[in-house]
């Protein structure tokens, strides 16, 4: 009982300061708009944004579903590709020497510049959005896995080798568990990119999604600034939710880690 209270108290101390700052910022925003210091057509008040977005739920929910599908599938594709490449780099030295520098160099390419090309190659369906999200999300996951696999305890590896463990057994029993912390660190970083990447892809061309929703609201007559702000808030909330899901998976996958 005491442990549960202590954990809850720690969580409260962790989340209370940012929550207080956020609430204070929203209150000041509302007061500033209500006082007439901001044009509500350009910067609507937060309550008006919330109610306008809720009233338009029939349009925004399908957009949320489409963008979430793109973000989640892109993250899964990035994680799968990162796993295969990281294992290959860790297993074979020639692959590491030839491929790892190219992975690093690939980050000099602005991913947003690839969006038109990807859409030209794959059209305006789901596939190009998933590819772009995967491209944006791949690097942190791959580097985390590569570094985690390389940092495996050599004593643990030697112990299993004396027992004539196979390469697959070493990978599953020692290397991957050792790399899990770095993997989840990279995955949580990539989560913050996923929705943004999907939005960028939808801005270039899409039939449904929050990017198209925002574009339509910004080019409406009159401009629906409140709906643009509402979409931004929804994207932020979805990203936080996806981050929380990954954090929950991390706790399940690593019950041995302190503080889990």
Q: Return the CATH architecture of the largest domain.
A: Orthogonal Bundle
* Alpha-beta classification: mainly alpha
Describe the global form. globular
- Give the low-pLDDT segments: none
Q: What is the typical, i.e. mean, pLDDT?
A: 84
CATH class of the largest domain: Mainly Alpha
The helix content is over 70%
Reading the helices and strands in chain order gives HHHHHHHHHH
How far is it from the N-terminal to the C-terminal residue, by CA? 16 Å
**CATH topology grouping of the largest domain:** MetI-like fold
The CATH superfamily of the largest domain is known as MetI-like
When the domains are counted, the total is: 2
| Percent of residues in β-strands | under 5%
Return Rg in Å. Answer: 23 Å
Biggest β-sheet, characterized?
none
Task: Summarize the entry for a quick read.
This protein is an all-alpha fold. The chain has helices at 2-34, 46-55, 57-91, 93-105, 111-122, 126-150, 154-162, 167-204, 210-218, 225-253.
What does this structure look like?
- The chain is mostly helical and 260 residues long.
- The protein has 2 domains: 1-38; 41-253, MetI-like fold (Orthogonal Bundle).
- The protein contains 10 helices and no strands.
- The protein has helices spanning 2-34, 46-55, 57-91, 93-105, 111-122, 126-150, 154-162, 167-204, 210-218, 225-253.
- Helix 3 runs antiparallel to helix 4 and helix 8 runs parallel beside helix 9.
- The radius of gyration is 23 Å and the shape is globular.
- The mean pLDDT is 84.
